[in-house]
Amino acid sequence: MSAESTGCVPEQPARRRIRRWWAWAPLVGLTVAVLVGALLRLVGRVGAADVVWAAVTVAALLPALWSMLRALWHRHFGVDVIAVLALAGALGVGEYLAGAVIAVMVATGRSLEAYAQRRATRDLRALLERAPRTARRRGPDGAIEVVPLDQVAVQDRLLVGPGDVVPVDGTVDEPVTLDESVVTGEARLVQRAAGEQVASGVVNAGAGFSMRATKSAAQSTYAGIVRLAQEATARKAPTVRLADRYAAAFVPFTLVLAGLAWLLSGEVVRAVAVLVVATPCPLLLATPIAIVSGLSRVARRGVLVRDGGALELLGRAQTLLVDKTGTLTAGRPRAAETVAAPGGDRDEVLRLAASVEQLSPHVLAAALVRQAAERGLRLTEPTEVTEEPGVGVSGRVDGRLIRVGQFSGELPDWADRTRARTELTGWSTVWVSDDDGPLGAILLEDPVRPDARRTVRRLRAAGLRRIVMVTGDRPATAAQVAEAVGVDDMLARCTPQEKVARVRTEAERAVTVMVGDGVNDAPALAQAHVGVAMGATGASASADVADAVLTVDRLDRLADAVEIARYARRIAVQSATVGMGLAVLAMIAAAIGRLPPVAGAFLQEGIDVLVILNALRALRGGLRHRDVPQRTRELLGRFATEHQGVRDVLAGLRDTADLVATDPASPRCLPAVRETHRRLTDEVLPHEAAEEQQLYPALAGPLGSGAATATMSRAHVEIRRQVDLLGAQLAQTTGDRLRPDQVPDLLATLYGLDALLRLHLAQEEEEFFSLDPSDPQPEPR
Questions:
Q1: pLDDT digits over 496-510, tens only?
Q2: Are residues 142 and 194 located together in one domain of the fold?
Q3: Which of 147, 244, 271, 407 could form an S-S bond across to 151 if both were Cys, CB 3.0 to 4.6 Å?
Q4: Is residue 537 included in any domain, yes or no?
Q5: At 171, is the secondary structure helix, strand, or coil?
Q6: What is the 3-state secondary structure (H, E, C) of 547-582?
Q7: With bands split at pLDDT 50, 70 and 90, how would you rate the model's confidence at 658?
Q8: Other CB atoms within 10 A of residue 690 CB
Q9: 638 and 759, same structural domain?
Q10: Contact 340, 349 (CB under 8 A)
Q11: What are the φ/ψ torsions at residue 740 (nearest 5 degrees)?
């Protein structure tokens, strides 16, 4: 989507600077005029000074009157009324200096508001300015042509030069280096391998590369962000609703107090003084400034909120309903474990399966091919490939007919145990077989996001009282995810209609937020007070009806948004309350004749500047977690990558334990145990020691104290103790086989190490690696 097609031609920097200076012109002009009037008064030209001050008052009154009449025409009665009455009253009783000070006060507040809005919305303006308008397309003959972006079609081959903005969503043909900060909010450069998806709007930070378009310009990620940004900046900030709730009581109170002061004293100047100090800049300006600042901050965190009203509601939310698949979980299947038949090779099983699946468009095929690529397996091009929907894919690899999918024959004992284990864990099984039977199985899971549990804890700390998971999945699988992330309630086998009904029920009790990613979530998102879409991976239908979109595939940004929204709303309420409280005290003093209009005007000016400066605090602060230094991020990335190797050792550990449990007399048992101990000693223990010495001290800052890693340190001690115990048990062996009396203790150690290491890895990924604000964590094997 080009800038011209959206009507948003980027504004030139010079023109923007001129407009910025002109924004201060009314305030400068009125201030100079007031000073000129003061100079005339000092030289004895009292009449001329009054004329100048009266002119200043009129210059402020006319636009304020027009604004008030326009609001009344739309049946909106707000705080503008007091400003108009104060200016008109000052003119009516001849308090021209007071009127001029009020005029400067109103102009000062509006100029500060304009400045705050410019500062707060610069990130949203930057999105519009960076919108790509053309693309380099490679023609059938290989020639490169520059075409308008709306002419790019799916499957077109494009060329992205160094420093260019990626024009549409697609897959890259070669390894690339990208700056994804515009879309994700992260300034860190990322590497993408050949075949990986890239989003439009990111910047090529390396050499030029070619890519294939997978979406048109209008359907691409960046186009959706631009549309949302336009809506966010074009709509009236509904935080005025917050101001109007205060105005509903403040305006009548002001008018009654001014009327009583006039009636009881017989001096109209007292009524004018009350109106002067009641001029409602805290409501007119401070409240929108705080909320607009919050909109800018959540945009920088990768969350685009449509308008201030949605942000205000997000700041008041008490209940969260969240979808499971694609929201609390990754939403994409991944190979959790590869099981080989006795005597087989796990890598060979995966290689055969991925080779057959190379030509399949199925999402499971992509998971297998990606897993094989990560393990560095060399795939073979299959022949005679056939695919039967719902059954699987078959093809010849290295002359063997390999089938990947379901297995219809009778399962051997090892396969039957594997099937039972996957049913208990809620995983799915892809069988890999040839003409002789199953060669192995690949266990697929939809893993819980590493940041899900931490996000739930942060949302509770931010003030959400009830968190409910709604999903169409099976109750057993849903219960495991619900327990893992720590929600209050769960609704499984839930249809879209039932989701809508549950959202409606919860919304009747409290302000409710619904988070989802799929087309089936769209009705529920529209029904909630605030609908939040996982825009980085979800369908456009859910993003189109949502009030907020997470543009980066991380759930913890939702917690960021809630914390910022609550902070911005708290600052807005604080500014309005303090400003009105001080104004009420001044109004009472004015009503009893202790505060003349001129002094009241100067006092109100001070109050307004105080509350506006307080509102600007919303541009910073509010987040409960600490930023992770770059050095610590690098350590987190390094050790997260090393976890993949530890999981390889774990897979071998589990195979060894199963071998000892099922065939302890086998001559393969003792060598397998020795090899497992060697890998634990040479690969796992050095990894744990490096974490203890390097990573854990670096996490003391982001986590708040070194005590936060104490439990993990204790786990390191226990892991080393169990490995040493395994070594001691091996030292007691004689001959080339295990003695029967050794088997029970050996099994206890092997299975205990398996459980301990799996739990430890999961805890580290959840508690520590999820702190890294960059890409989601690597997939375990």
A1: 788 888 988 999 999
A2: yes
A3: 147
A4: no
A5: strand
A6: CEEECCCCCHHHHHHHHHHHHHHHHHHHHHHHHHHH
A7: confident
A8: 15
A9: yes
A10: yes
A11: -55, -35
Strand partners, 445: 334
Which are the contacts of 99, defined by CB distance < 8 A and separation ≥ 6?
Answer: 53, 54, 56, 57, 60, 61, 87, 90, 91
Dihedral sign, Cα of residue 559, residue 560, residue 565, residue 568: positive
Query: The CATH number of the domain where 378 resides is what?
Result: 3.40.1110.10
Cα–Cα distance between 102 and 91 in angstroms, integer? 11
Give the range among 21-25, 414-418, 774-778 with minimum mean pLDDT: 774-778
CA 83 – CA 255 distance, rounded (Å): 12
Q: Of 397, 412, 445, which residue constitutes the final position of a domain?
A: 445
Domain that holds residue 168: 133-227
Mean per-residue pLDDT, 258-272:
86
Secondary element (H or E) of residue 49: helix 46-73
The amino acid present at 103, given as its one-letter code, is A
Asked if 109 contacts 94 with a C-beta cutoff of 8 angstroms, the reply is: no
> Which residues touch 435 (CB under 8 Å, ≥6 apart)?
401
Tokens of 92: 């009516």
Please give the C-alpha separations between residue 285 and each of 107, 155, 281, 613, in angstroms, as whole numbers: 11, 50, 5, 11
Is 335 within 8 Å of 442 (Cβ atoms)? yes
Per-state percent for the chain, helix, strand, coil, to nearest 5: 60, 15, 25
What's the rounded Cα separation, in Å, for the pair 640 and 767? Answer: 12
637-673 burial by CB neighbour count: b if 16+ within 10 A, else e? bebbebbeebbbbbbebbbbbbbbeeebeeeebbebb
Instruction: Tell whether 557 is covered by a domain.
Output: no
Local confidence band at 565 (pLDDT 50, 70, 90 cut-offs): very high
In this structure, the answer to whether residues 393 and 283 fall within a common structural domain is no
Q: Give yes or no: residues 649 and 753 share one domain.
A: yes
Q: Which of 2, 16, 475, 532 is nearest to 217 (CA)?
A: 2
**368 Rama sector, left if φ>0, alpha if ψ -120 to 50, beta otherwise:** alpha
Out of 123, 179, 323, 556, pick the active-site residue.
Answer: 323
Most confident of 67-81, 106-120, 397-411: 397-411
The CATH number of the domain holding residue 752 is 1.20.120
Instruction: Give the whole-angstrom CA distance, residue 490 versus residue 501.
Output: 14
Q: Same domain for 702 and 728?
A: yes
- Report how far residue 322's alpha carbon sits from residue 451's, in angstroms, rounded to the nearest whole number: 14
- Tell me if residue 323 is catalytic: yes
Using DSSP's 3-state secondary structure scheme, residue 496 falls into helix
Global pTM? Answer: 0.69
- The pLDDT, as a whole number, for residue 363 is 64
> Contact at 8 Å (CB) between 171 and 177?
no
pLDDT in tens, 221-252: 666 666 655 554 444 334 345 556 666 677 78
Residue 754 has pLDDT above 50, yes or no: yes
Residue 724: pLDDT over 90: yes
Tokens coding 324: 């499971």
Show Cβ contacts of residue 208 under 8 Å, excluding neighbours closer than 6 positions.
Answer: 159, 160, 161, 162, 164
- CATH, residue 208: 2.70.150.10
Q: Give the pLDDT confidence score for residue 775 in this predicted structure.
A: 44
For 593, the 3-state DSSP assignment is: coil
DSSP state at residue 442: E
The alpha carbon of 529 is separated from its chain's Cα centroid by a whole number of angstroms, namely 18
